[in-house]
Structure formats: C-alpha cells, structure tokens
Amino acid sequence: MNDSHYFITGSWDNYQNSIKLWDFQENEEDAEVYPFPVAECPHKGDVTEAKFLNADTFVTTSSLGSVHLMKIVSEHGIEPVIESKINWENIHNFPNGEISPCTSFSTYDNDVATVGEDGTINLLNSQNQNVVRKIDNADSCSIHCVTFLKHSEILTGNLRGHLKIFDIRAPKNEPTTTFMLSGTQVSPLCLQHHPTQRHLVVAGDEEGSITIWDLRQNTYPVNLLDAHEGGVAEIRFHPDQPDQLFTCSSAGDVWHWSPKSGGIASVGLGTAENVWLASETIKNKLDVFTLMPKLHKPINSLDVNRNKVICGCDNEAIYLINGVNIFK
C-alpha cells in the first residue's frame, strides 16, 4: 500500500453538508504535517459513512437514505475535482414511505452492501446504476453496521444486539445464522473483519466493549475486551500489520492496540498464532497506547495508512497523527 497524501471528510448537521478532499505535504526537515482542502462538493443530507473502493473512487451514504459513488479526477498540473458517478437515490425508506437514514455500508471489490434504520439491505455494484438486490425486512429494527465476510456473505448487527449472517446468493431474504453480541441487548456500533483472515470478526459496542469471534468455530465469542468508557465508534486493523488494531470512542479516545514485544505475532500464512484469537491471556499480551489526549467529545471515525492515523471529532476538527509506531 502506497503512502497516501489525500484523504476525504464528510460533514453532518450542517445547513449544506459536503464532501471535502484534503492533501498534505510532508517535509523531511519538519515533522509536522499540515493538511489543506483541495476540492469540495455538496452532499444531500448528513454523511453517515465514506469509504474508498480504490485509489480514486469512493462511496458515501446519507441520512436521506441515498448512496453516492464519486470519483477524484486529477490531471497533471490541475487541482483535482470530485465528480459524481452514480447516485442511488432514496433506496432506504420505511413502509409508510418516509425516508430512512442509511446507517452503514461495506465493500468487496466493486460490490457494496448498505444497511439502514428501515431494516433493509441493499446490494449495489459500482458498474451498475440500478440496485442489484434489495432484501426487504432483513431485520425488524434498525441495522447499525455491516461487513462482508466473503463475496457471497455479509454480517449485520442491529439495534437489539443481534448479529446475522446472510448468504446473498440465496433466494430467501432470511439469515443463515443469528447470534447475540452479548447476554444483554447491547447494540453493536461497528464491525470489522481481519484483513487476511475474514473469519475473524471484531465488534465494538455502545458500552465500550470489543468482542472477537472466529466464525469458523462457532458463534460464541473467542474474546471480550472491556475497552473504552464510551461507545466504540470505529475499529480498524492496520492493513499491512494486522496484529495492530486502532479504535476510537464517544468518550473522546483514540487507542492503538499492539502485541507486546516478544509476544505472539499475527501473520496471514497462519505459521504463527493470531493474537486476536488467543485465549483469555490476550489481555496480558497486548499493549494499549493512547494516541492523543482525551478530547471529551466523541471521536466519530478513524482511518490508518502506514504510520499515520486520522480521526474526526464532534468538535468539528480533524486530527492527523503522524509517526505511529507500527513496526516492532
């Protein structure tokens, strides 16, 4: 993965929301990095989530139930611009016709799975202007999060703490497996699969806990970590070093979880034990680092690239953390 010097942000609760493209230049003589906006485009409704499909194409979802495919167009010597490619308008709505916010989405190659407060799953493709498949009544309540387990399988988490696996090739609109996040009705806020071992799934919930499953075995959690004081807003494995995990929370924390030096390693080939599937002693094998002082306002999103972590806060600020110690 190349060093990225671009990133995007999406606004919410503004009179006119927008997507911004930012750039930053690094200087070997200066450790500080100074981002600056280079392009902006309007966005209907609050931006509920944004993710890149590839180096120049990204997807955003809206509180107005729409999904948007956008592309960064850059010609040599000319400032880049953001172009709208496909708008899937109002694909989430309640039975009475009211608009439903699209709460989350996941991508796999060119495929996109979206979920919403309407309990519906929409399957999209970046090459197709039409909805590929709509799974109505996939859930009886709001679906908070979704992730692809494989090309034909997705995992969703709902308001009541139910996690459901759907085979999206099957003709029926029913899940193949349903299990609980915990014994009580705690809502999952985010789901993330391991970059090289997709059967390893991590969920962050509204009470600040992180739950880990190995879905090859069964639907009983392998590990439960009491983590943040507030809800876990986002979880990210480092794409190149997947034994490194990053989390942020509504309590204003950004944490870096890393195996202790000399501890067990995580490798894609399976020649070493995966730290996230370790037994109860996992807590003794991890160091947790606070990447910035607690802000006392929710950190609502984060991303990681090489040794940089970026996060967005409810104080309307973006924080770019440089020089994170990834390599042991």
Largest sheet: 4 strands, antiparallel
What is the H/E order? Answer: EEEEEEEEEEEEEEEEEEEEEEHEEEE
The structure class reads mainly beta
How large is the share of residues in beta strands? over 45%
The overall average pLDDT, rounded, is 90
**What's the helical proportion of residues?**
under 10%
Distance between the termini: 19 Å
Total number of strands = 26
Unreliable sequence segments: 263-271
Per DSSP, the total helix count is 1
Main sheet: strand order: 4-5-6-7
Using only CA atoms, what is the Rg? 19 Å
Shape designation: globular
Keywords: Nucleus, Repeat, WD repeat
Subcellular location: Nucleus
InterPro entries: WD40/YVTN_repeat-like_dom_sf, WD40_repeat_dom_sf, WD40_rpt
Protein name: Nucleoporin Nup43
Explain this structure to me?
- Helix content is 1%, strand content 51%.
- It is mainly beta and 328 residues long.
- The strands form seven sheets. It has a four-stranded antiparallel sheet, with no helix packed on it. A four-stranded antiparallel sheet has the order 8-9-10-11, with no helix packed on it. Strands 12-13-14-15 form a four-stranded antiparallel sheet, with no helix packed on it.
- The longest helix is centred in the last third of the chain and has 4 residues, at 282-285.
- It starts with 5 loop residues before the first strand and ends in a 7-residue tail after the last strand.
- It is found in: Nucleus.
- Keywords: Nucleus, Repeat, WD repeat.
